[in-house]
Amino acid sequence: MKTVKFNLNGVAREVETWPDEPLVEVLRDTFKIKSLKAACGPQRECGCCLALIDGTPKVTCSVKIAQVEGRSILTLDGVSDNERQLYADAFQAVAGLQCGFCTPGLVLRIKYLTDQEQPLSRAEFARALDGHLCRCTGYVKILDAAELVQMAKRGGPLPAVIDDGGVGKRLKRYQGGALALGVRPFVADIDVPGMLHGAVALSSHARARVVRIDTANALKLPGVAAVATAKDVPGDRWVGQIYRDWPCFVAEGEEVRYVGDIVAAVAADNPRIARQAASLIEVTYEPLTPVLDPAEAIKLGAPQVNPKHDNLLSVTRYARGDVEAGLAASAHLATGTWTTQRIEHLFLEPEAALAVPLADRRLHIYSQGQGIFEDRRQIASVLGEAEDRVFVELVPNGGGFGGKEDMTIQAQTAVLARLTGRPVRIVLNREESIRIHPKRHPLTMTYTVGCDVEGRLMAAKVNILGDSGAYASVGGKVLERAAGHACGPYRVPAVAVEAIAAYTNNPPCGAMRGFGVNQTSFAIEGCLDLLAAKVGINRWEMRWRNVMRIGDVFTTGQILEKSVGIEKTLLAVKPAYDAACQQGRAVGIACGIKNCGLGNGAIEYGKCRLVVQPDGMIDLHTGFTEMGQGLLTVLTQCAVEVTGLPAGLFRPQVNSHFELGAGQTTGSRASLLGGRAVIDAALKLKADLNNGATLASLAGHIYTGETRIDDTTAPGELKNGKIKTHTTFGWATQVVVLGDDGAVERVIAAHDVGRALNPQQCEAQIEGAVHMGLGYALTEELPCKDGMPLTFKLREIGVLRAQHMPKVEVILIEEHEPEGPFGAKGTGELGLVPTAGAVAGALEAFDGERRMRLPMKDSPAARAINLGNIPDAERDKWH
Ligand code: FES
Ligand code: FES
Q1: I need a labelling partner for 222 at 20 to 30 A (CA). Which of 139, 436, 444, 857 fits?
Q2: Whole-model pTM above 0.90?
Q3: Alpha carbon of 307 to ligand 2 centroid (Å)
Q4: Which of 326, 328, 296 is closest to 312 using CA atoms?
Q5: Digit-coded pLDDT (tens) for 610-647
Q6: pLDDT in tens, 246-271
Q7: Mapping DSSP to helix (H, G, I), strand (E, B) and coil, where does residue 842 land?
Q8: What is the rounded distance in angstroms from the CA atom of residue 450 to the CA atom of residue 458?
């Protein structure tokens, strides 16, 4: 141990600690500087832990505490109130933040940059932000915020924040200011008196029999309070959203099935001891040959991966019309096999859970999950306790994108809290996060699509195989959506689609933004391009001749009756498409469709409670998760629109105080169902207000809102004599234009959102999704060897930085959806559905090569993206 003295935010400080302790840990744990976030440490690749050390920006995860002896450290907490307000306003004015996890680091960088004498251009700002990663925004609005700050500091106008308004207004994000400054806590920021810190021990094999788990050495380590294994689980060890096929601890005698399986968990006085103890747990394995190829996995005689289910996880089929006759009669055919890669969500906030035993013996769980009532059900089951013994509170998370639907460490944290009787918090590091949570499926998709001489589609035959990894998660449902959307937004009279999900010993695959539709979109858009060339018409025209209109039949058999905005999106991009073609640019175009709501026969609920409090505020309870998409803001706007009350009176929140279980926040459905429920409750409050009541007189009143969707049909079923697999769909067309060097220069994205509840947030969602779609198209992948990811490094995973983003122009189309709140439909997923297809088309226009495998790393567009660190000279310029 060593005593280190330094100046922190203008105050002389000293601390006695291990000299090699990362500065970020000391500042967060000892000095409670929570504006610094830890997202990748010590990779130095996200910028979330940025501080100014002697005036120079440094990521504090790679600085040892001993290195700051005698130095001066500034964090956002030490910046003047006026200046802090400027940053908070700038980011809120332009929706420059979504989940907010990356934002404080960016704010401090922008402070540093805008304090310099020389003003920066937008391109210079983008290059200077290279050390920062944002997974939500696509950087467009972050750069807008930087420009606003720079302008204000040079005497320009102060950012104008809209702090009230109902539907259609650009209302600021709920808690946006506190998020921008890093003062709204995430789970890892919540400290509780007497809290222990947890760590997990993961399997070192993709497939092996666990012979023995020896915890003796870990238990002997001073500071260790408990070590939990399967033997310590009082209830049902097996969890899972659909199938309970996933043990929260793998037991002795059982097989580990992937490299994210948890064999033990430790609770200790501090995170350092907890991790050391986890490393002392000795597990004896009998290695077995892993099953890594989904095609091999479903062959007769393959070893069974999961004891609860054979390797064939699911088969979905859609068949309509005579496909063979349709293909035989076609004038032109497009055939081929398209393949897509495994994708890591890479939300910036790694998983964290906090379990606090309450005086009444209940357990209070602070969760970041995408469905807290699902969390509660599964945690209670693991503990063997009634659900009402477990109170779950959502701490809005730092990004989810589907990757926080499955349980990760909530149950293990709860078990440790019960074992010790003390609060326990587990925070995963980046490697653990990547190893544990499910990914986006790699799919292999074989298509044969035919059209007549004029390019009108006649028939499509599609076979899809997906690697779902070691556990079911929602893999079967993902392949179901892939099958249903296999022909995209196009009218195809005869279809035969089969989609198979298989278990393997690779990392599990489950929900990720787009839910199987990004993959099939890449394939069907490739087919449309190939057919357009054979017919001899341009790609826009090919799509115009085939997109669905009212009365047309979707791949699932559903007849479209309302809110079909695809024609309008095509017309919206036409001027830009035509102009770019005329200029001789390499242009790609793709259309997209994505269901809103689970559909496929699921009975879905939205629930809401509005509680008028004595202080005149109204608590707005919902069961859906805020994860950066802006749900709590748009639900507030729905309540404002109905009641006419100011937005500032509403306190949206998510906890299990009321029974508001509505399933996972997934499938672009939270605004749809949550919004409808809020309207239902708000109308009741409004009726009382109309009858002369005041909020003061209504204190204590609870207004309930509930909505139910029960008319969708499962694949192959009819209800009320018809097929209605989905409540509604979002529609989009995107155009990608390349520059002279083959780099992506411009993306035009026209999206039918039904009604833009908050136009600024809609734009932000689409910009962020396009960013994710470009990474998907060009650079992102998570390859595995023997079931183990080959890298845990953020840059190597391939997420784009600010300087790689092209110009993105969003066009919002509002094709009223009668079943949506104020006509709205979900926007969260569709934004990246067409992107890879449009990029592939543009690349073919550039160099004549039709690419059928993602990511398209062999392309000039990918080569133009230098994901390595920017050159030293450039970095020195920005420090
Ligand atoms: S946590 Fe320090 S750069 Fe990512
Ligand atoms: S807002 Fe940047 S990571 Fe979420």
Answers
A1: 436
A2: yes
A3: 38
A4: 296
A5: 999 999 999 999 999 989 899 999 999 999 999 999 99
A6: 999 999 999 999 999 999 999 999 99
A7: helix
A8: 5
